[in-house]
């Protein structure tokens, strides 16, 4: 792996000894497993899976609870759920009522995905998707997603503002901090 390959991120699940590399030039996501001790000048690892030809991304996040799930948001207004752990190249697209740039995505530890979108009139810019419902019936031992098309709607918050960043609190997975572009930082409690 070359230094100019793109983005490298260690697994969000501390029990998994793996990392992900996103090559932005060739649009490839690879998962690697660390196979030895890290020493100065040497780090032993092996490729475990690969996902080719993902869309041009603006933002991404790796699920802390579903090992092969990566969410990618694009400037064209798509949110793609990639299956990167089985070499299937499978993905699902979460539909938006009004397509616009996706500026941030974040998973929590209970199966929620928060999506921060650019400002548009008459639609919410913070959408919360329950992936437990969207992926109902999914069998992780089979390749790909294998789930039917769904008409599920996200929970919508923050109308007519541009969401620049989002992050769930690790110790409170139902609490979300939101950066509103050029305005403020807001905290949302998603319980109830």
**Ends apart, CA distance between termini:** 46 Å
The count of strands amounts to 15
Structural class: mainly beta
C-alpha-based Rg, rounded: 17 Å
The side-by-side strand order for the widest beta sheet comes to 1-2-3-4
Number of helices: 1
Mean pLDDT: 90
Q: Would you list the SSEs in sequence order as H and E?
A: EEEEEEEEEEEHEEEE
Give an overview in words.
With 192 residues, this protein is mainly beta. It is built from 1 helix and 15 strands. The chain has one helix spanning 131-134; strands spanning 6-10, 18-23, 28-34, 45-52, 59-62, 69-73, 79-83, 91-94, 102-107, 112-117, 124-130, 155-159, 163-168, 175-180, 184-189. A hairpin with a 6-residue loop joins β5 (59-62) and β6. The termini are far apart. The mean pLDDT is 90.
Explain the layout of strands and helices:
Layout: E1 6-10, E2 18-23, E3 28-34, E4 45-52, E5 59-62, E6 69-73, E7 79-83, E8 91-94, E9 102-107, E10 112-117, E11 124-130, H1 131-134, E12 155-159, E13 163-168, E14 175-180, E15 184-189
Antiparallel strand pairs: 1-2, 2-3, 3-4, 5-6, 6-7, 7-8, 9-10, 10-11, 11-12, 13-14, 14-15
